[in-house]
Amino acid sequence: MRIFNVKTIIVGGSATGMGVAARLKRNDPNATIVVYQEKSYVSLGACGLPYFVAGNFSDPNNLIARSITAFEENGIIIVPNTQVFKIDFENKLVYFDNKTDSYDNLVIATGATPYIPPLVGVELKNVYTLTTLEDGIELKKAMQNPNIKNVAVIGAGFIGLEMSETLSELNKNVHLFELEERISPNAFDPEFSQFIKENLEKNKINVHLSTKVTEIKGTDQVQAVVLADNSLIEVDAVVLALGFRPNTEILRNTKLALAENGAIIIDETGHTNIDHVYSGGDAATSSNYITGELIYSPLATVASKIARVIADNIANKPAKFVGSIRSAVVRVFDLGYARTGLGEFEAKKQGYQIRTVLIKDKDQTNYVNGQTDLYLKIIMDIKSRQILGAQMSGAVKAMQRINTLAALIWSKVPVDEALEQIDLIYAPPFARTTDILHIALAKLNK
Ligand SMILES: Cc1cc2nc3c(=O)[nH]c(=O)nc-3n(C[C@H](O)[C@H](O)[C@H](O)COP(=O)(O)OP(=O)(O)OC[C@H]3O[C@@H](n4cnc5c(N)ncnc54)[C@H](O)[C@@H]3O)c2cc1C
């Protein structure tokens, strides 16, 4: 379909913004698309940053999925190093430098920024976050200094876990601090939080749960972190991994509807409450596929899908984002931890009557090298017999199994005798004839 004389401005040039731009151009090669991006690059694959810092690869350009030149060759206009600081929705104008530009359609894809706690000392040298390419380059360089021996990671979410692994691989002594009483409580049930803790401790990470860092001490450089009980732990650097806040400061006090955390409220088409204004990815809300609830899920898996939906709707090809089940996986040293759907607490809070099983098994046959323990928890709604959620831990190579569970949740099939016989792959290096999934489904049928 052709869109004549329609100009789309995209603010923010990463997964969401560039995803919209690329698909919109495919939808209509004549579309005018202008991207304002505050960085000198677009399409950063931020997910690779911990592995860049760890030294898995040395060229930071590997983190750029597609260059500005490649987009420009495709007819997409990119204005880098340019921050949009105001939007006038009445007159359809974006403001940058001392100029304005006008749009027919606007996509706000400004993403999120790491939460910086208001701690004394947070501005000291050697306090880092990890979100941008510059962050990655700076942190990697700093960690090459052998005088940095002890590092505090604050926050035990996925990035905090990945950074604990990374820093440990760089031979740093890592202290991981978490305010909650267990690891990643928003992602995992207590059993899996405990598995992760044991793994971290086995790998010599100093795990401090229920621990509040109240101050970062130092003169110019970091020297220590102070805890709520006034004790002091000497560290040479701090990595903050306390979660993300939608990058929507410029939209406060406008007519654009924002959720409590500042995320732009969108509907299933990616549309906001203002005509011709769309948003998605880390800047916006999304919905939970199971409960229909508005959620904030700043993941690349959400950003890439909503981008396609927005581009199709702008091109008058009606499309809907049906939501996510927060499927996610994290590697901590040689083990993986995966989750999908609702956790046990979440399911109960939603009013479901649930049945859960927690199975311990092996991921493959014992006579081929590499057999490891595998744990699987499934949460089922007793009434509909549908699977609501699942969590898994084990060898990294075994984690793809969670995708089968995501598909079962997605398709809302009941757990019955037919499902118990689901035909899964088997060969000695990959599985056993009766897989952990079969065992769990059979147990749910008992
Ligand atoms: C270290 C790390 C690891 C991650 N790992 C995973 C993972 O394993 N799996 C997963 O699913 N997700 C992961 N994520 C999350 C994933 O990277 C994000 O969900 C995704 O990048 C969101 O894309 P976005 O385009 O919405 O936002 P962003 O990537 O934040 O991009 C927004 C862009 O907009 C620009 N911008 C902001 N404000 C303005 C303005 N006013 N004017 C102009 N430009 C502006 C910003 O500079 C930025 O380039 C990870 C994130 C990080 C930081």
UniProtKB/TrEMBL annotation:
- Spell out the Pfam families in the cross-references: Pyr_redox_2, Pyr_redox_dim
FAD/NAD(P)-binding domain location: 7-284
What Gene3D superfamilies does its record include? Answer: FAD/NAD(P)-binding domain
What keywords are assigned to this protein? Answer: FAD, Flavoprotein, Oxidoreductase, Redox-active center
What does the record give under GO molecular function? oxidoreductase activity
Please indicate if the UniProt record lists Isomerase as a keyword: no
Q: What top-level branch of life does the organism fall under? A: Bacteria
Q: Which residues form the Pyridine nucleotide-disulphide oxidoreductase dimerisation domain?
A: 330-431
Question: Mind telling me which NCBIfam families this protein's record contains?
Answer: PRK09564.1
Cited PANTHER family: NAD(P)H SULFUR OXIDOREDUCTASE (COA-DEPENDENT), PYRIDINE NUCLEOTIDE-DISULFIDE OXIDOREDUCTASE DOMAIN-CONTAINING
Task: Name it.
Answer: NADH oxidase
Please name the gene that encodes this protein: nox
